[in-house]
Amino acid sequence: MLAAASFVVAVTLATWGQVGMLLAAAVLGCLLVRARTSCCVLLAASLAGGCIGSAWLQQALSARVPVQAADRSVSATGVIVSLPRRLDGFPGGADGWRFDLQLQAPLPSLPAVRRLRVSWYPAQAQRPCMGQSLAVQLRLRPPRGPLNPYAADRARNLLARGVDGYARVEALQGAPQVACNDRRQRLSERLRNTLGQGVAAALVPALVVGDRRFLDEQHWQVLRRTGTVHLVAISGLHVSLVAWLVWWLARWLLALPAAFSAGRHDAAVLALVPASLMALGYAWLAGFSAPTLRALVMALLVFALRASGWRLSVGRILALALALLLALQPGLSLMPGFWLSVLAVALLGLLAGLPRPLLQGHALMTLGVGLVAGAWFAHWSLSALLVNLVMVPLFAVLVIPLALSGSLLPGADALLHLCAWILDGLWPALQAAARLPGLPLPVSQLVMLALLAAAVLAVRPGLPGARWLLPLAALLLVPTLHQRPETGQFDLLAFDVGQGQSVAIRTRNTLLLYDTGPDGALAARQLLPWLLRQPQGERMLVVSHGDSDHAGGVARLVPALSFRWKLSGQPQRLPGFSACRRGQRWQHDGVVFSVLWPPVDRHMATANNNSCVLRVSNGDFSVVLSGDIEKPVEYWLLENGLAPADVVTVPHHGSRSSSSFAGIRRLQPRYALVSAGWKNRFSHPAPSVVARWQSFGADVVNTAVAGAIHIDASGVLTRWRQAHVYPWRQGAPVVE
H/E/C letters for each residue in 517-540? Predict the structure, then answer.
């Protein structure tokens, strides 16, 4: 067990790029065990794990599309190896598709690249499907994504899944060579057609074949807020349930033949064979996704130990399973879901010998795993305790058996409709539970671990620790004082939202969000995780104008957060917003907020020039948030008392239509912040504009290169991408 644990630690550290810690981990492991335990075994396991993890990491990093190859056009042939997902909203107006393409031949200039995530907007009504072989002209993009505090790291997720980069289909070089014959896709579409357009039509394909393409953002929001995401992912619950049901049925069917056989075979052992085959078949049906693979390996390991007669503790089984999984697929250590599964099994192992293991296990799983999942996915609620208490048995006893039986048995559509009736009836209750308020999120990893330990101690009385200390753990939910600016001070965070803008200003007790990024899905993934963790009780929202790159996230953020009031330079385009007009002024915690533009009597023809321009100052430090204003507005502001500022958001993402010499000369900022998409189609910021700001002494910082940009109350600037370096984030240019 110690050797397996050392192997797991070594693979994890090496995969995350911490190879230098391997020897220290091995030595520490030797020091912590008794003398008769072989240190050589631990050292060998650590070195083997380190070598496997390091080799995988180096191979995966070398296969990525490099930054230098961005926008390179290449010819490629490949096979679609994922279920194509529909894309909407392409600028040309056509719908598109996204899928993973496994290359059949090396690219001439990039021989290591093997798998690309491809976007295709066909000119005609063409529909790709899994298994098709395509010959295409592709335009490459490196595996980059926005980088913000607490948000998902897209580059890490792509690396873990073996995706080497992005690409967009420019042209087909021949008709698809294989018709749509993938069993998973055919079954998923049959389920969709049978069930219609209700909630069940989106949930049942996810339960049966792992096809979650039909779950939209509203579905995911309800599932996240009720802690039931695990119910629609084919994971340990589903695979274990199916395997157990087959084993239980096969044991009784084989009991009589086994009793009269010559060898007196044990029916319980013989039943492990069909149970293993069923688990393997279910995993194949789900496409051997990462959660399914974890559950399959764990189930097969338990079956093998049961058949051999070995009796191992849960901890030993978990260590062996982890070692096997990471040896086969080291990239699993980069997936949060992998560690959530490990945590779930480890917590269940702590319940051995308790008088009420089911009830206590449910409470510990909901509190412990729910806490960690909430810290990672930005929502944690005690309502999940009651919801899962009802939903898990219902899914185990009714929903999953009905969905699988109705899908796989011929002529069993009635079972599918019964399953749909149950799901459609449960969904309104889930929606109601999702509207309940959540608990405060942990403000740091240390707080999360402390609360997790408190949850374990509350359920497992036999573990060491003073029980009277448990109430003190609740104090850890109170945000620490150092996370808030002092009275009279404020800080700034410019989010990395691609070709859009979003900036947060925090004072001691208030938070002002200026713009919401280009779309709701991105706002939910990149902005909400940080916003929900902020201790400031009062929130305000200012949207500079109604264009989608600044207002795209409004529909997602407004229902999720409580804003005291909402202002915009174009309130007519944003229902529920009030007009942002020059002369408006308010003060919070000694910090003054002043609207500089637009005046009450002035309306501009273009949306950009109606942007709400806001100045934030405490007397010693000032920021100007400029939206998308252009030179005519800049000249007007110069004539009407525009004052210098320490920080300025560069107008219109650095377009040539803005940033006049006169305006820059008057502002004289220390920092000029550009919010733009990496390699965006508008070529923002224009090189001449960057040079203009620099010529007046400004440090021009671009979110496309720096990631999120934080400026603290003392004026110290932090580039998120350079301050939080991991191997998969390297290779990006650091010179702006």
Answer: CCCHHHHHHHHHHHHCCCCCCEEE
The distance of Cα 390 from the centroid of its chain, to the nearest Å, equals 27
Quote helix, strand, coil % in the chain, to nearest 5. Answer: 50, 15, 35
Q: What is the DSSP string of 197-258?
A: TSHHHHHHHHHHH---TT--HHHHHHHHHTT-GGGGS-SHHHHHHHHHHHHHHHHHHHHHHH
Order of all β-strands in the sheet with 647-649: 585-588, 591-597, 613-617, 622-625, 647-649, 671-674, 699-702
pLDDT at 351 (0 to 100): 66
Kindly state the greatest CA–CA separation across the chain: 103
Cα–Cα nearest to 274, from 303, 231, 314 = 303
The pLDDT tens digits for 501-545 are 999 999 999 999 999 999 888 998 899 989 988 887 799 999 999
pTM: 0.86
Alpha carbon distance 695, 249 (integer Å):
78
What kind and span of H or E run contains 550? helix 548-551
Interatomic CA distance for residues 360 and 363, integer angstroms: 5
End-to-end CA, the chain? 49
Q: In what order do the strands lie in the sheet with 717-719?
A: 578-579, 565-568, 538-543, 510-514, 503-506, 491-494, 709-711, 717-719
Cis before 685? omega within 30: yes
User: Do 145 and 703 form a contact (C-beta atoms < 8 A)?
Assistant: no
Which pair of structure tokens corresponds to residue 480? Answer: 């620490």
Six token digits for residue 231 = 């119910």
Number of H helices, E strands in the chain: 29, 21
Question: Which tokens belong to 150?
Answer: 């607490």
Indicate the residue type of 668: Q
717 burial via Cβ count (<10 Å: 0-12, 13-18, 19+): middle
Query: What's the CA gap between 650 and 503, in Å, rounded?
Result: 12
* 578 CB neighbour count, 10 Å cutoff: 12
Q: Which amino acid is at 504?
A: A
Q: What is the DSSP letter of 396?
A: I
Which stretch of DSSP H or E encloses residue 282? helix 272-285
Residue 657, Cα to own-chain centre: how many angstroms? 36
- When pLDDT is cut at 50, 70 and 90, the band that residue 492 belongs to is very high
* 83 contacts 213 by C-beta, under 8 angstroms: yes
The CA distance from 119 to 85, in Å, is 9
532-579 confidence digits (pLDDT tens): 888 877 999 999 999 999 999 999 999 888 899 999 999 999 999 999
Q: Is 81 helix (H, G, I), strand (E, B) or coil?
A: coil
- Rounded to an integer, the average pLDDT of 344-357 is 67
Where does residue 203 rank: exposed (0-12), middle (13-18), buried (19+ CB within 10 A)?
buried
How far apart are the C-alpha atoms of 691 and 706, rounded to whole Å? 18
> How many alpha carbons lie under 13 Å from residue 422 in its C-beta half-sphere?
19
